[in-house]
Amino acid sequence: MTDRAALARLTEEIVTCRACPRLVQWRERVAREKVARFRDEPYWGRPLPGFGDPDGRILIIGLAPAAHGGNRTGRVFTGDKSGDFLWAALHGAGLADRPSSRRADDGLRLTDAYIAAAVRCAPPLNKPTIDERDACAPFLAREIGLLTELRVILALGQFGWDAALRALATLGHPAKPKPRFGHDVAYEVGPYQLVGSYHPSQQNTFTGRLTVPMFDAVVRHAADLAGGT
């Protein structure tokens, strides 16, 4: 069983992190100035910890919180269009108890799945710098190390894929040669199966690069590799 106390301590470290001045300034500015459609809502405005089932066999890795999604709600992939896509697929695969989530206090529960971002603060233009990426990297490696039942890592996009490979190398599981990212590709890396998916960003879903059937299929593939739900 996962050490929940250790995971809680890591969560506290994540949400109080101020290591990257540019990200701190941006996330807090967004939380103060808001946008018109959310002007009456409180914003989280801090880094985001992982969320889900600590004993889950599947870890889903995204890029970073959305400025008016997770940076507002305080939970990864909650309150934005990417999350709408993700929760529906997880629900269809039996990994989430509902097909949508707009608030962090809505009672959403995940079964056999845990979700984290490679970078924990919302970055300007959704583009963290290399230094910011590297400052956040130890959080992901430690999370993976603490999730003792983990078997499958579903990486959303090239950024999530590369972050997963760096974290696994840190944990003593280097992949050589480096597996090439692709949608619905799977590689064995140490004791884990690494599965790639296009990120459910609007850039991909609006253009048809990633469709609902495509995403449903890759989530089911990850669940099958983990041994079913």
Which sequence of strands runs across the widest sheet? 1-3-2-4-6-5
Q: Give the CA-based shape.
A: globular
Mean pLDDT: 96
Q: What structural class do you assign from the helix and strand content?
A: alpha/beta
CATH topology: Uracil-DNA Glycosylase, subunit E
Q: Considering DSSP H and I runs of 4 or more, what fraction of the residues is helical?
A: 25-40%
What does the main sheet amount to? 6 strands, mixed
Brief descriptors of the model:
229 residues, alpha/beta, Uracil-DNA Glycosylase, subunit E, 6-stranded mixed sheet, 8 helices, 40% helix
Q: What does this molecule look like?
A:
The chain is α/β, with parallel strands linked by helices and 229 residues long. It has a single domain, classed as Uracil-DNA glycosylase-like domain (Uracil-DNA Glycosylase, subunit E), CATH 3.40.470. Helices cover 40% and strands 12% of the residues. The protein has 8 helices and 6 strands. Strands 1-3-2-4-6-5 form a 6-stranded mixed β-sheet, with helices on both faces. β5 and β6 form a beta hairpin. The chain is globular, with a radius of gyration of 16 Å. The two termini are 17 Å apart. The model has no long low-confidence stretch (mean pLDDT 96).
